[in-house]
Amino acid sequence: MPITVKVGVNDLKILDNISSTVRDDLQSEIKRGSKVSIAAACFSMYAYRELKKQLDSIDELRFIFTSPTFVAEKASKQKREFYIPRLSREKSLYGTEFEIKLRNEMTQRAIAKECAEWIRRRVTFKSNTTGENMNGFMTVDSGVSQTAYMPLNGFTTVDIGCERGNNRYNMVNCFDAPFAQQYMQLFDQLWNDREKLEDVTDVVIENISTAYAENSPEFIYFLTLYHVFSEFLDDISEDELPNEATGFKQSKIWSLLYDFQKDAALAIINKLEKYNGCILADSVGLGKTFTALAVIKYYENRNKSVLVLCPKKLAENWNTYKDNYVNNPIASDRLNYTVLFHTDLSRTGGQSNGIDLDRLNWGNYDLVVIDESHNFRNGIGTHSKTQENRYQKLMDKVIRAGVKTKVLMLSATPVNNRFVDLKNQLALAYEGNSEYLDEQLNTSKSIDDIFKQAQKAFNAWSKLPQSERTTDALLRTLDFDFFELLDSVTIARSRRHIEKYYNTNDIGKFPERLKPISVRPCLTDLNNAINYNEIYDQLMLLSLCVYTPSNYIFPSKLQKYRELTHNKGENLTQSGRERGVQRLMSINLLKRLESSVHSFQLTLTRIKELINGTIQSINQFEQYGQANLAMYDLSNADFDLDDENNDFLSVGKKVKIDLADMDWKSWRTELQKDADTLELLTLMVADITPEHDTKLQELFKLISQKIEHPINGDNKKILIFSAFSDTAEYLYDNVSAFISKKYGLNTAVITGSIDGRTTVKGFPATLNDVLTCFSPISKGRDVLMPGSTTDIDILIATDCISEGQNLQDCDYLVNYDIHWNPVRIIQRFGRIDRIGSRNQCIQLVNFWPDLTLDDYINLKSRVETRMKITVMTSTGDDDLINPEEQGDLEYRKAQLKRLQEEVVDIEDMSDGISIMDLGLNEFRLDLLDYIKHHGEPDKKPLGLHAVVPATDELTEGAIFVLKNINNSVNADNRNRIHPFYMVYIGKDGEIVCDYLNPKKLLDDIRLLCRGKAQPIKEVYERFNQETDDGKNMSEMSELLSEAIDSIIDVKEESDIDSLFSTGGTSALMGQVSGLDDFELICFLVVK
Description:
1087 residues, alpha/beta, eight-stranded mixed β-sheet, 42 helices, elongated
């Protein structure tokens, strides 16, 4: 019915919402007992608060949502909602985006409670369920007078004139009777139309009451993740998430994993799908093998073929899990991957692990798992001028060739002290072409630049004085992109991390590490005994020229040999190879003297025989004009089995050199000098028999002490490591006799060349049998050897079992010689220092040479430098010994120093850096899991909180999660989770952790909240009392503004820094004005 009305001047007022506001008018119009009707797009409890006094006294309020709100929509979605999108309409109950300031006062809880009470008593809400347009208006009937207000978009503080909002103007017409009655009739007509309206009062009450319910800490943790990682949720595609339909979660291996391993397995699959590669760098003793097996199972269930590349000494482990063996705990999973060794990549044919390498289709694997992948950290170009190294082969034969190959790398030490190590391993995942990965990554720079910048930052940081060289300082200088990159492709957790963030009840604890025992025996107890230094002085005189005949070829004849040896330039030159051997031998003599006098003597004898044989040949040539020059053959026994060093022993062809082409006279003179020195050395140590070998006698004492006074119950087991098989055999011969005579216990030895030897009569001593009887529980003796009670209590071994074996029945480990690479010492200790150990505590014993540490380190560097000089003078070739040997001596010294005092985790090793400190991925996975079970918490109000009890480390205060609304803060790209900011502030106003360390903050929140699925009564009651049930939040509000100030301060500090740093300033890029720029997402009160 068209209404034409003439409006008299007295009947109409115009409220401009500046000088005269709707609120002021309503305050005078609403009387006790009034009836109020509103049709509007949304309703905000802050508007209720403004008019609380009046609204509390009315008879009833009828409210119509003019667009479908809180109802299932019947209308089709085609109509563009050009005003307020539905989610905002529903969330505006707790304040609209223009009421942030009010929300930041943090009194929403008290307001919501009062508002909900009032709604229950006085209000009915209905919602339009159709797509029809309705314009908003409001009427007030006080019995005496009637008033109507029009237009009214929403019922919020902006619409009634308390806030400006983003309106250019906001004029409202106010009509008296009789026109107001027209609106009242219209409203009644709408109100009674059951077809088009639906009652939603209960839903509104339910929604508004979430704003004042007590929340469980866990819910606040997930709410934080939901907001912080919301973009990640948008990006995620089903293809990149592990597909449950493959049934891998029903597999046997899945049921054996601990929670932290399950988390890793899912994350790995996600990364492999998205980035094609992933490095799992959990620290030693956290069961990386099992995690990888679950990933393999996932891909095999999808009919993918899998190749495992491992060091030869770990073959047994990997073979066990795929074969039908009684001790295979996951035999029912029927895994079917291929196991080959790192060294097979350099081979061109032959058999390996039962596979015919000639016919193997290397290019046909969908997934390659590389165990101990740090062996590939040297990348292409280490010996690039020489042979095609393993890395290159892996890249060309397996990864680039044939089908697209995903790469999973396992290593506890992916970074030694260069980020390049990491880059080389990652390059395997993107086939050496970094653009592949650049496209996927959310970074502003390319991978190559990111690594350059990171290395630069790291180098600068490592030059800082010790006191300033904290992890924190490094994290601040590293680039945002670097974290993003690591986050995308690595997973790394330390023991501390697992103990802190996972429920260790099901896992069992790590054993406690006792302070290491350092033993420094002198060489011998003989009277006129010699000491280390005297021997070293003689060693420095050796030239070892027997290994470098090429140095003596006449210049005119050199070309002839170049052509012979060079394989047309592909392989290492003869002379390069010779120098490698020479240098290795010289360092090796030192190492072997440290290991045992016995090993030292053996090596002296071998070299002496070689020299004497060579001198004889020369003499023969002098007499008869011809002779066969015995080309030396190195025996592996002289070296510790560090894979990385021996590569070049197989490099190049050995070529017979004709003595006629050589200056053999000079050579003979040099050889004779060496022969005399070696003779002298042999005499010096000849008297040191086992009885007078102080080091051996010291070991006997230690063993007796341990057997007679075990540190855990009745545990007599001892594991003794040596770098050399000669030493291991020498120890076995002596220790086994001593132990069996004195205590009747059994001993065994394992080295690279001896699969196993033991004092147990009639025992088939294979590697696996020996390890099983040494560590019967962890190796499953009851399954493997039912009914067997054979026990081996002392195991002597070389590093062939220092990686990847689980021997945690043992609680006492002796390093009979100190390995030059501190990481190896930790790797060894990781055999017994494992999660779920039954031992309360474990002991590490280190034997050191009888020198001060400084002498010891300097000595090594002398030998190394001396050998380097010979190399440099004679050649321009690449140096063949691995970089680790030359490594940073200072670093090594600091590490060895620490190892005398404590057992260190690899990730604490370097003052350097651990990838552990960097990734955010596990939080994303936590969130996904939550959403899968609970749906998205998108309708929850902002500003919710929970109260948790403080811990020793995490003191009282509050953690605020904020969102920067107008993008004014992160101009300098320093905050990894922009636009979200988290600040942990103590109740004294001191910042406990600022926003630049989101990983630490999320860790803290997770620690405080995880597993607490119910509100914690004793703390929240105290908090509610202190704040008068949320009415008086001034203290919290004060902390909030200090937290926001801290963000702005930290930003200004870093701005000022950036003015003086290279690469431009971030100072002028964004102004922050303070409180109004931040929206409070949620907070955690720590009581």
